[in-house]
Structures are given as structure tokens and as C-alpha cells.
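Page 42, continued from yesterday. The earlier attempt failed because a stray header line got pasted into the input along with the sequence. Redoing it now with the clean sequence only.
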Amino acid sequence: MHIPLKYGHSTLTFDIDGLASHVDVLASGRACPECDETTLIKNALARPIGSPPLADLVSPGQRVVIVTSDVTRPCPSVLLLPHVLDELNRGGVRDHDITAVFGLGTHRSQTDVERTALVGEQVYRCVKCIDSDPADVRFIGCTRPMPAS
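This time it went through. C-alpha cells are written below.
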């Protein structure tokens, strides 16, 4: 039995002959099989859990920073950010007041090509997109552990 697994932008295939009786393959499902990603994202932004919509939380003139993942993480920023920007714009925040920061942690800086691929050409042209700078941070405190429920 051959098991294909997505790995980066390619696929690795594992041969599990002789192990098949000890292996189960779990396939992911969709929360809403009839919904496409755009519909799911828009619905989540329109009706967030426990919060007013983003457009109701911002106002014209505010500056907004969106922290998103770097090239080493699988967050689909290219799908999410256009809709987040639409919500911010709907709330009156202009594109030139929005900065997307790629949280690098200890990873290397990214190229312009990588930043563009992460957020898409339209977002990259509309808002400032920068890598985080580990030398430009300030300690602001520690969080408390969540109480056991």
C-alpha cells in the first residue's frame, strides 16, 4: 500500500506494505462540503464568535497591523488577507494605514517574491508588507495560564 502525503509544494509517498494491518489513514473533511473557501472566510468575518465584526471594531484614521506567518508556516494568508482588508476598509481604515508583518521569530528574512506569494500581488501592492525584526521588540509582560475548566 502506498500513502501519498503533501510535503511543502510536493508529495512524499510512503510504502507501507507489510504494515497495512497496523495503519489507519484518516482523511480530513470539510466543515461545509458545499461551501468554498471564500464563502467560509466571509461568513466567519461577518459573524465572528463572541465579538462584533471587525468592521465594527475599527474606525477611520486608525492604523492597523496584521501579524501573519512567514514562509515556514502553512497559514493561507493569500486567501485570508484580502477579506480581512475588505472588512478593515468597510470600517473606514484606508490601505495606507495597514501594515502586514510577517512573524519571523528566529527564521531568516524573506525575499520580496516570498512575501508577495504569501499575501498575493494585490495585497502586496495595497498595503505595507514587512518582516518582523527580532532586534526591534519590547518586553511588555507575561500572560497567565488559563484556568482549568
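Notes: Residues 33 and 48 are 20 Å apart (CA to CA).
Reminder to self: strip header lines before submitting.
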